[in-house]
Specification:
With 196 residues, the protein is of the alpha+beta class. Helices cover 29% and strands 24% of the residues. It is built from six helices and nine strands. Strands 1, 2, 3, 4, 7, 8 and 9 form a seven-stranded mixed β-sheet that branches. Helix 4 crosses helix 5.
Length: 196
């Protein structure tokens, strides 16, 4: 990564040092240049809600989402392939990593998109897709995200929006393994808006 003179402040150097010490996991916030030398902070959110193609398409339509990537998280195998994840033996979930501008869209708004994009009462499946890789899961990147995710889940349960119990897991984010390039923006590249 090349750092310009504008970004090479002691505070930014500390962020890089801490991120490096944390191993391969990326921080929840990503500094980016936004105009005349102003550093704007983007945040990350990671969701598993079934097949990642349709979930990614849903988040890409949200104003304030600046980037998405599909991949795998929550398993035991390093750098898994799609074929390996589909064996249901790696423990990974298909996920979408969302980079967003919190000045334009809140984490709570992203949670609403998550709940609306799948059926969180289906255990280890979504529709015809069956296996633990299709589980409903929120991977949080900070204590604030964890609190918001748990509050959102509790509010849905209290409102009895779903007839069956919600089985969504709330877990700390681990290493995000980017999926193969042909999976990235899969539906958009084919002129489609959803999987089914």
């Amino acid at each position: 990564m090349r750092i310009t003179a504008r970004l090479a402040s002691p505070a930014f150097a500390l962020v890089l040092l801490v991120a490096g010490a944390a191993g391969t996991a990326e921080p929840a916030t990503t500094p980016t240049e936004a105009g005349k030398g102003v550093v704007k902070t983007m945040e990350k959110a990671t969701f598993g809600a079934g097949c990642f193609w349709g979930v990614e398409a849903a988040f890409r339509r949200v104003k304030g989402v600046t980037a998405t990537a599909v991949g795998y998280m929550g398993g035991t195998k390093d750098n898994p392939t799609y074929k390996e994840v589909c064996t249901d033996t790696t423990g990974h979930a298909e996920v979408v990593e969302v980079t967003y501008d919190p000045a334009q869209v809140s984490y709570e708004d992203l949670l609403k998109v998550f709940w609306d994009s799948h059926d969180p009462t289906q255990l280890n499946r979504q529709g015809p897709d069956i296996g633990t890789q299709y589980r409903s899961v929120i991977f949080y990147h900070s204590p604030e995200q964890e609190a918001a995710a748990r509050a959102s889940l509790a509010a849905l349960e209290k409102a009895k929006r779903f007839r069956r119990p919600i089985v969504t897991q709330v877990e700390p984010a681990s290493t995000f393994w980017r999926a193969e390039e042909y999976h990235q923006q899969y539906l958009e590249k084919r002129g489609l808006t959803n999987c089914h």
